[in-house]
Q: What sequence folds into this?
């Protein structure tokens, strides 16, 4: 029995199955997904579908007949109740059992539920069905409160504001996007949102949610609809119950192997060991797809370590925010203005004064150039950039 | 619903009826055209829907944006003056008879 079982049916799971077939791997493959919709692109949920509605022909990850054509068993609306690592079996919630030679866990992440009274009155966004539910409610309201100034919260806030809703974003820390972005750019993004009519309240502790608003330490904020975008948590329950090592996610080594033999994990839920020896967890389409491709190689007899450059994007109203590299590694940054405001770029440098990340607002050319250069392992020093007056194109031509 | 022909570099081609208002990438994906992945969902953040257009002048397409141009540049030597990203082309009745060649032949693994 050489079956590969993949738990989850998001970007990582589907890319892994597709890459396995692409590499000529003919093992039987079974994908088990809890949602009943055919596997779909997740980014449009917060960027588009919440305000425009989910179309019937929503964006699929692969054509509907892909799975049959590629002989991939797709079990949708099904969950795994337990995993027996030693017996190499998974037990399905519907009662059946499935044996595996290799198991791939790709369970993803889910919205964090704040431990406060009345949180059930706040809607959160993860699945396509959540987008349908939010759209159905959003259409009928005038005022919206969004708890959390992270990517998802701000994408929904910007989309809702663009359709004429009065939107308030409530952030617990002093700065929106504080954990994800260099402070200078985060402040700019806040100003752009405020100019677009969004109210941003920072340093606010949310104490309770009611059907008509949010109680904070600074007072009650009335809203017809409350949305919660307070970050995500990795889905580790099944891994924990199966005896796998977990911390901030399912722990895997550079080959994406968990602490149990022949069990691997990819995507949002993995906490992987980087080449530098630190543990990292990224929630992104890039991370999901790149880990999936690397694992497909390993599972097809070509052990491959994961070490792709992280990149990410967020569409927030008129802002296209793009990131290449991880600014968490940065010790210093330089912010450069573009010719067309609010265009801007934050050059992030590591301890050796080498470019380690570039964050951009409405500057796709710089994003693309830096992504290519950093992916290729090109060393770009701060001096080189300064000599070129931080014109990235000119600096790279040298 | 214009008919659009997708051809693979190594031969086989497939004619699809594309829905007006969708992007060429979405329609190619819906019909399972090999080599069109649309990894970023159409945000012009990858180049996994790289195509070559035959006779693009005939179809009066919008000019290419700076963002699309940059993403294409990263494709290196595969890029020709006929290169486009399918996610940046909206299907309209005027595209009837458009011939497209897919740049990549596999999943790009």
A:
């Amino acid at each position: 029995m050489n079956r590969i079982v993949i738990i989850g049916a998001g970007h990582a799971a589907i890319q892994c199955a597709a890459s396995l077939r692409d590499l000529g791997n003919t093992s039987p493959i079974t994908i088990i997904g809890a949602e009943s919709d055919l596997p779909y692109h997740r980014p449009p949920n917060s960027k588009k579908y919440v305000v425009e509605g989910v179309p019937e022909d929503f964006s699929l990850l692969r054509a509907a007949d892909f799975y049959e054509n590629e002989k991939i068993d797709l079990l949708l609306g099904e969950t795994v109740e337990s995993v027996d690592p030693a017996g190499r079996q998974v037990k399905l919630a519907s009662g059946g059992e499935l044996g595996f030679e290799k198991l791939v866990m790709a369970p993803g992440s889910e919205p964090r539920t704040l431990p406060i009274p009345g949180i059930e009155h706040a809607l959160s966004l993860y699945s396509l069905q959540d987008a349908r539910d939010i759209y159905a409610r959003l259409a009928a309201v005038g005022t919206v409160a969004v708890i959390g100034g992270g990517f998802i919260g701000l994408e929904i806030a910007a989309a809702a504001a663009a359709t004429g809703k009065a939107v308030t974003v409530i952030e617990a820390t002093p700065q929106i996007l504080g954990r994800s972005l260099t402070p200078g750019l985060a402040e700019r993004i806040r100003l752009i949102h405020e100019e677009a009519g969004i109210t941003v309240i920072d340093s606010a502790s949310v104490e309770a949610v009611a059907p008509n608003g949010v109680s904070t330490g600074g007072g009650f904020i009335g809203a017809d609809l409350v949305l919660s975008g307070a970050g995500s948590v990795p889905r580790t329950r099944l891994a924990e119950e199966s005896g796998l090592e977990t911390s901030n996610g399912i722990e895997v080594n550079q080959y994406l192997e968990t602490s149990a033999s022949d069990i691997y994990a990819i995507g949002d839920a993995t906490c992987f060991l980087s080449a530098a020896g630190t543990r990292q967890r990224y929630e992104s389409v890039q991370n999901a797809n790149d880990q999936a491709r690397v694992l497909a190689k390993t599972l097809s007899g070509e052990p491959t370590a994961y070490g792709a450059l992280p990149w990410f994007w967020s569409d927030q109203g008129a802002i296209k925010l793009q990131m290449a590299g991880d600014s968490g590694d940065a010790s210093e940054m330089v912010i450069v203005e573009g010719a067309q405001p609010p265009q801007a770029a934050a050059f992030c440098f590591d301890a050796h004064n080498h470019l380690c990340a570039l964050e951009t607002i409405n500057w796709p050319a710089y994003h693309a150039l830096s992504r290519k250069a950093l992916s290729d392992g090109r060393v770009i020093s701060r001096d080189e950039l300064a000599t070129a007056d931080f014109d990235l194109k000119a600096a790279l031509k040298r | 619903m214009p008919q659009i022909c997708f051809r693979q570099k190594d031969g086989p081609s497939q004619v699809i009826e594309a829905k007006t208002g969708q992007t060429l990438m979405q329609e190619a994906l819906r019909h399972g055209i090999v080599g069109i992945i649309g990894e970023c969902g159409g945000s012009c953040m990858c180049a996994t829907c790289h195509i070559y257009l035959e006779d693009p002048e005939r179809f009066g397409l919008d000019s290419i944006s700076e963002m699309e141009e940059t993403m294409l540049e990263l494709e290196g030597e595969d890029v020709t003056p006929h290169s486009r990203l399918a996610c940046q082309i909206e299907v309209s009745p005027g595209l009837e008879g458009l011939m497209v060649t897919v740049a990549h032949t596999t999943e790009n693994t």
About this structure: Chain B touches chain A at residues 19, 22, 26, 29-32, 38-45, 66-67, 70-71, 73-74, 106-107, 109 (CB under 8 Å). Strands of chain B lie at 3-8, 13-17, 50-53, 83-85, 99-102. The domain at 3-102 of chain B is CATH 3.10.20.30 (Ubiquitin-like (UB roll)). Helices of chain B lie at 24-30, 66-73.
